[in-house]
Amino acid sequence: DQQVKQNSPSLSVQEGRISILNCDYTNSMFDYFLWYKKYPAEGPTFLISISSIKDKNEDGRFTVFLNKSAKHLSLHIVPSQPGDSAVYFCAAHAGSTLGRLYFGRGTQLTVWP
Amino acid sequence: EAQVTQNPRYLITVTGKKLTVTCSQNMNHEYMSWYRQDPGLGLRQIYYSMNVEVTDKGDVPEGYKVSRKEKRNFPLILESPSPNQTSLYFCASSRQNSNQPQHFGDGTRLSIL
Fold first, then answer.
1. Chain B closest-CA separation from residue A21 CA (Å)
2. Subunit contact B104:A44, Cβ cutoff 8 A
3. Which of A77, A78, B10, B27 is the most exposed place for a label (fewest CB within 10 A)?
């Protein structure tokens, strides 16, 4: 039973355009959400996070939006660059300290020139 | 340099031969965790540890053991490996607070024949 879902296995976007990666969750107890990026032959690296008390968090070209009523979050990358091509994982957990952490299956983003 | 180090990076072995994958971090992190990544399944948590001598099961703990005798080390033990444990494994560490991102190792690719 997957509690964090990324329903699009892949996304292809032209350089300079916006990339939107989506993530849905089922557990209403989740209150912290993170996005990780993964290149081949490397471990995932942290990208951006958001707490459930917010609905938006920005960091440079990356913005995460949280819609608690819909149990949906999205990652926007503007403008997209070829170096953004990677697998993006959405993750979630409940509580003020880390414990069980739930990941989605990932979305392969390809940014073409 | 802050890092999470996994060894070995690659291993091919046979069914039933006990093996240990080591994980060490130099950031004095309380929280450590093991994940496996399989095609189409994303990252799934195997075990995690909130601190020394404190470990707990993740999504897929069957067939694995862990121990946390020291803060810096969190080895993953496969007592009797089977082919369905062929996978890419990642160790991660972080501070315990929920807003702290995890630092991942570069992964260990295990092939069980």
1. 15
2. yes
3. B10
